[in-house]
Every structure is written in structure tokens, then in C-alpha cells.
């Protein structure tokens, strides 16, 4: 008490010593010199936090944070006498903002007009602000993704499903269940995009649609024909079933809506939700696209790839991946009659293909019992591992887990593109061999259809925790669904826009621009964008003699020439500096196909 | 073993009662929103199409005049009041909300050549073919009283236009010369002339209120400073300028409506070449008026249409026409930036929306948000060829369409000829002259 009184000698009111102690100003790291306050500053935790956080963008003088901060710090004499201990906007780690940043910042050379540059700078500012606001909003998301951690020395793959179900809450425990359907198996299956409904199709004709969370049956029919594949269409009111001869569409009451006789012998189907396209692969080697919103056949492509029993779609760009018996995987869009890409992935036939939700990685498995992961940006293999039996079915979850069904064993791997896993994350043995495998969207659930029914497995951490209700809302009401359907149909993407790069539409079409410019030059007879030739200004006192004019002209011309040469030299040097692709250490058999 | 499985409590996601709004949790993670660009593109395309579907700009026609409408004036304080003068000397005051005439007076014998309101909004001035300037009250006379002007000035020559100072009790008329009058006097304070000619319109600058611009029939635009007794400078163009209008936000900028189908936006400091040439009309442009924001202006033409131009664009963004509308003599942009009024030969005043597809009335917040979003999308994708084509398409009457086509062919032929001539002459002997400079004959100071 005495010491306090001594330090506050400038004459505080009597008895104010204690008050002064509580009023001590909080010093933040961004407020200039750090206070010699050893315990707080020296703690390693504080240090880590300091590294992690970036300063608020108050560096710019005109930014609102800076102004706000100034105002707050300047307002020492508030009515309450208190100061804001955290002036300015809350700091925002850069990596969090980065997730919401798209594309590259525009880089305009000095030649472009100032108005355009200012306009773009303003836009950039707004885009940056939007990204920051979105990153701040992440704090408000209500759910956390699931996880599974074993005890020290315990592998997670040894944990049985029953144990997980017992340890998890009651609601989650009900998500692990088994349907014993011995008569009509093996089963193919599919989930709707909000992950609420399940569709089962047994090879011997049994088709059932159900709300798997409440376990209420929507419909159950037997089509009295071989069923090769089933898939939901855009909502839970319609599904497509490929039968022995033709393709059928049923509604959720099991009433046949349509029989598409142009689609015969279909083996696999993929529904492209944003394009309202149903892509089918047939046993005769045809890839067909059906626009289900208007009922027209958009494209029929003869792939010349034999029986098409392996199919997958890239959810990021709606490209269909087909696996062939000669070990190649081909990528297709409905606009091109040839494959966009042909990749040799396996020795022996391809058994399964799956693409992750970001569209960056593709996993394939083949008859050579290998599971391979490819980078789809560079079409390069990343990982390869040998599975005992080889995976017959593959599926990526929303958060990047990979499930592989090897005979009657289902294994789930984590972070496959990053490192080759030596142990699965989870493993489960089924009563019979698996026939269909899908992760349920927005849930920690993996559905497996097999010879004697269907099994729903708990895979903690598989599903996206926080959904966007305008995109996929598992809790949507009937009205909301109808409204969503109208909106989705309004923004149906035409099939012409399916390309390898989904963002291509947002870029500048430089080729067309150049062509148009040339046409304009031809029409006008001169280049309106060309810089006018240098005209020396007229000077007085005899300095504008013909010789002097010529000299000045030459000087400018030489300077231009010099900058040109300098630029080209710089480019050359940069090209030389770039390391050339090193020759591979081991020559593989595939190298002969390299160009 | 530690385990957490995703399990959502439905209470957090489903509304409690039927009266509540549905809950819509959002997550802006780009991973959850694939096909961002193509979907936005489709939304922009839909928004552009809807804009064209909802483009119904015509609101009302005010009829009552018994001859062609020759001039109009906005009320400086009341948005709903507008004044119009006709070719038979009649002046009408209109109420726009009720869309009816509230007062009629026989102001002149012969044409009402010009009309302007005083800045206070209680009175207005008219000039007519009977060589008089009359000062009227906006309110009608009391019961049993006769309709009489406050003042009448008898001049020696016909006055062709009038404009009032924006802040002081001073007005300017034009005819054989530009006269500047004090309201209290019967003779002008000063008369300004530059050559012998008839001057068709005079306008006060709304910001630098001492400046005036006038256009004369010997093809020139003359600028004056009221504080000086001599004109400032003039620019001579290819053809006659009918009228001009000052930008209400930028003091130096004005736009002139020319007889050669074009409008020219000038910076009064650099009259050597206009800032922008606005090409789209197919006949003489008769009147022009700026929007109060100063970003756009509307022009009326002899080709029976009115067009809206952005100040910084050479082409119009909108064209309005009806089957019945004849040569449009006068046009005004209302002070709330929402409507356009045009008076035409066939005795009607028409009320248009300034933004053709705008929804009038109160907007629900969600509606407004959706509109803003659509507007931004349209801006973002405006350069895509399909969207551009839909946004630009306007139906034109056959006369205008074929005339525009003919003009285009003529322009192309002239360009080709010039190109050939240049090709076969000594390099540099026939230099290229830009469209902006082509129409300027001279600048005199």
C-alpha cells in the first residue's frame, strides 16, 4: 500500500491507491515498447501466440482500424474514465484469411489507364475486406468436427465399431447399424447430398429408399430385374435405377416416372448435381449424359474403352473419370468426343476410381492390388501402396478421408495424399464382400452395401461439421426444399461449361481480346492504342535546328531500344535461372510414353 | 480412447414454432461452394434477362395541352410539380403524383419560348413570341381575381430563351443578344453580344453561379462571366448547337446538343476538343438535361426518341420511344434522379422511369439485398458476350433502326475512303483526325 502511494505521488484523491492498482492500463504487444513485466512476457505460450498472430492491417494510415485505434487511444477522458484495453479490430491470422482468398491480385502495368488502375485497386480492397469478414465469421460456426484418438500405444484401427458406438453419444450410436438383407444382395447404395436419405439397390431387384436417420422407409419395391446401380437425383423425391436393359426413374413412393430406353445396359451412374446431368456408363462402352431437368440426352460418347464398370466424378469440375480394363483412367466432358486426359494408372485393369471433394486428388485401385493417389493438377502419382487383396471400391469423404473396400474388409485412411499410410485409420470386417461404398455427406458415417445387406459405420472426423443451409441443409423442411429446387434449377450450369478448369469463365480471354484488337486495327487503318511517336518540342534561341531536333529524337529512340533490350535480357536470365527438370533417377517402363 | 462423433442437436437447426422464420446457418467456406464462377455467371445471366423482362419504363402521359409542348421547367422545391409551356402560348402546371394539371394560364400570344422557375419556388418567368418577359406566381389567383403576371417586360426583339440565376434575383434572356436582368428593373443590367446572331438558349452554371453558357445559330457556343461585360470565349462547331446543359456536380463540364445528331461534352477550360462525343441519335438533338448526380444525362431528339447517356461513355445506355410520341422538343430529369419527363410535338408530356426495370415503391430489406446482389453480379459479368448482348439489346422503331443502319454504312464508307486516300498519298500528308477533334472548327478567346 505504501509503495503504491509512493509511486502515485502526483496527488490522487485520498484512498484512491487501491483503485489505481485495478485501473492499471493493459499493455498490448502492438502498443509500442513492451512493459518490463517478466512473468507475462516470458511465458512460452505468449511467445507462440505472438508469432501466430499478425498485426491488424493498421499499418496503412487511412485504414479504418488505424483511425479507430487512434480515436480510442486519444479518448483518455471517457465518461467512465476507462480505456478500451483492446483498441482496434481483433487481429486475424493470415492463414485463416487465405482460405477465403480466390485467384491472384491483378497486376497492371504502368501503361494501363489510371482510372482503371484505381478502379481495380478499389475492387481489390473490397475483396480483401470480404475475405477478412468471412474469416472472422468462422469463429461463429457452431459445430466442431469429430475425432478419434487411441490410448497411448493403441492403434485406432484396432478399435471396433461397437466400442466407438458405445463411447459416443446416444444419437451418434444409432448411426451405427446393420441391415440384414440376405435375399437380394449384393447391394449398391447412395446418399442424397444433404446426407439424410439412403437408397439401396440389391442386384436381384430389391430397391429401397429410406430416411436412415429416423429409420423410416420411404418406399421399397422389387423391380423384378437385375439392378446394376442406383443413384439419387437432385432431391430425395426422385432416384434413378439402372436395370438389366434400361434406365428407370422412380419417385420416392416407388412409382415409375420414366423408362429411358436410349440408355441400355448401364453399369454405373453418376449424378452431376449443379448441371442436373445424369452420366451413365454402359457395358457397350458408351458414356451418355441425360439432362434430367428437361429430359434430353445431352451427349452420347463412344469411349472405345470396352465394358465401363468403373466410374467416378470430380465434384469440383464435373468431369467424369472412367476406369478401363487396360489400366488407364480417362477423363471426359460432354462437349468433347475424345478423352480430355488419358492416364495409365495400373498394370492390369482399374477396379475403382474416386476423386476428393476439392478435385485435387484422385485415388485409383487396380487388379495389380495397388492403391494409387494422383495429383490432378499435374497428373502425377503421389502415393502408392499395396493392399492385400486390392480395393474393389473407393470413396473420399468431405474432409479428405479415403475408404477402401478390400473384399470383406473396409479400411479408412487419413491424409493419404500427404504421406503413404502404413496403417489405416479405421478398419472393419463385413459379413460378406462389399459391393458399394459411400461416405455420408455432412455426417461421420460411412455406408457400405455388401452381399448380405447394408452396414453403416462410424468414422469420426469424416464429415463436414458446419453446413451451409443455402447449399445443403439436412434439416430442411418441405417448403425449403421446394424453394431450393427452384433456385437450383434457375442456376443450372449448362453442360457446355464443363471444363477441366471450373474457374475459366472468370478469367480474361486474352486470345479473343488480341484477335478483336487486330481486327479493329485493320478496320481503322491505325492502332488506336499505340503510343504516338515522339515529337520534340519546339525550343527557342536557335536550339530547334534540324540537327538538334534529330539528335533529341534519336536520344528518345535509343532509350526505348535500351529498355526493350534490358527487358529481354532479364527474361533470358530468369529463364536460365529456373532449374530444369532433373532427369529421374530410375527409368520406369512408362517413360517411353513421355514426350 | 477419446472419440467425438459429429452429432447435431436438431433444436439448434429447426425453428421452434411455425411462426418463427426458418433458420439458415451459413458457412462461407469455398470448399462447400463448388462451381462458384459458373453459378455466379448463370445468376448474372438470369438477372440480366429479368432486367429486360421487367423493363417497363413508361409511366404516364400528361395530356391537356392544345399544341406542341415547347419548354418545361422543374420546380426547385417540390418534386411533384412541373411547369410546361406550349406552342399556343399556354402554360400549365402539373401535379405528377396525381398526374393532372393543377393550373392553366394563357401566358403569351404565340409560342412560349422559354420558362424557368425562381430558386425560391414561389414564382416563375416565361418568355414568348410576343416580345415579352413575364413574371408569374406559382399559386393561382384568388377566387374572382383575374389571372395576371406580377411583372411584364416589353422588349424590342423576340426572346428565345430564359434562365434564372441559382442564388440571386437575376435572370438572363437570349434572343439577338444575351441580356442579364435584375428582377426589380425593366431594363437589362447588361447586354452581351459577340457578332450579330440569334442565340437559341442560355444557361446559368449551377455551381459557379456567375458563369453562363449560350449557343447561337452561327454554330458557336459562347461562355460568359456575369461579372465581366464581355464574353469569355467561344467554340465553333461543324453544325449548330441547339441547347446546352451544365453538369450539376462538376463545375467545368457541360454537354451540348447538336444539330449533327451528336452530343458533345466539353470541359470549359479545354474547348479545343470535347471530353466525349456521344453518338447514337439519328436526327438533330433538341434538348439535353443532366441527372442530379451528374453521372448521366438524357437527350431529346427530332428522331422521336429520347436517350440516356452516361457522361463518360460515347454510346447511350437506354432509348425510350413509343408509337405515338413525335419529335421530342424538351426533356427534364427530375430532381430525385428517378424519373424523366419529355414534352413532344403531339401535345403530350410523358413520364418515364430513369432506370427502366426499377421497381417503384417500398422495398422489403431482403428484396433490396437481392437487387443489390444482382446488380453487382451484372456488373461483374457485364463483358461476357452473351450477357452483353442481352443487356444491350433494345427494340427500335423501324425508322430509327434503318436510319441508324444507313448512317453506319455512310460512316464506314467515309472511313474507308479516307483510309484509301491515306494509303495512296505521301506518308504524313493526310494525318488521322480523331472523332473528337473532327467537329471542332475553332476556339476563339
From TrEMBL, chain A:
InterPro entries in the cross-refs: BING4_C_dom, WD40/YVTN_repeat-like_dom_sf, WD40_repeat_dom_sf, WD40_rpt, WDR46/Utp7
GO annotation terms (biological process): maturation of SSU-rRNA from tricistronic rRNA transcript (SSU-rRNA, 5.8S rRNA, LSU-rRNA)
Gene Ontology cellular component list: 90S preribosome; small-subunit processome
Signal peptide coordinates: none
The entry's keywords: Coiled coil, Nucleus, Phosphoprotein, Repeat, WD repeat
Residue span, BING4 C-terminal domain: 424-502
Basic and acidic residues composition bias: residue spans: 556-581
Region Disordered, residue ranges: 1-113, 527-595
SMART domains: BING4CT, WD40
Biased composition (Basic residues): 17-27, 45-58, 93-105
Localisation: Nucleus, Nucleolus
Function: Scaffold component of the nucleolar structure. Required for localization of DDX21 and NCL to the granular compartment of the nucleolus. Part of the small subunit (SSU) processome, first precursor of the small eukaryotic ribosomal subunit. During the assembly of the SSU processome in the nucleolus, many ribosome biogenesis factors, an RNA chaperone and ribosomal proteins associate with the nascent pre-rRNA and work in concert to generate RNA folding, modifications, rearrangements and cleavage as well as targeted degradation of pre-ribosomal RNA by the RNA exosome.
Summary of subunit composition and partner proteins: Part of the small subunit (SSU) processome, composed of more than 70 proteins and the RNA chaperone small nucleolar RNA (snoRNA) U3. Interacts with DDX21, NCL, NOP2 and EBNA1BP2.
Protein name (database record): WD repeat-containing protein 46
Species name: Platysternon megacephalum
Origin organism lineage: Eukaryota, Metazoa, Chordata, Craniata, Vertebrata
Automatic annotation (TrEMBL), chain B:
One Gene Ontology term from the biological process aspect of the record: protein ubiquitination
Top-level division of the source organism's lineage: Eukaryota
Pfam family, one: WD40
Primary residence: nucleus
Biological or metabolic pathway of the protein: Protein modification; protein ubiquitination
Entry's localization field: Nucleus, Nucleolus
MF terms (GO), sorted A to Z: ubiquitin-like ligase-substrate adaptor activity
Composition skew (Basic residues), residue ranges: 417-426
Spans annotated as Disordered: 417-437
GO cellular component, one term: Cul4-RING E3 ubiquitin ligase complex
Ranges for the WD repeats: 62-104, 278-319, 321-362
Keyword list, A-Z: Nucleus, Repeat, Ribonucleoprotein, Ribosome biogenesis, rRNA processing, Ubl conjugation pathway, WD repeat
Ranges for domain Sof1-like protein: 354-440
Keyword Repeat belongs to the record: yes
Signal peptide annotation: none
PANTHER family: DDB1- AND CUL4-ASSOCIATED FACTOR 13, U3 SMALL NUCLEOLAR RNA U3 SNORNA ASSOCIATED PROTEIN
Entry's family note: Belongs to the WD repeat DCAF13/WDSOF1 family.
Protein name (database record): DDB1- and CUL4-associated factor 13
Organism: Platysternon megacephalum
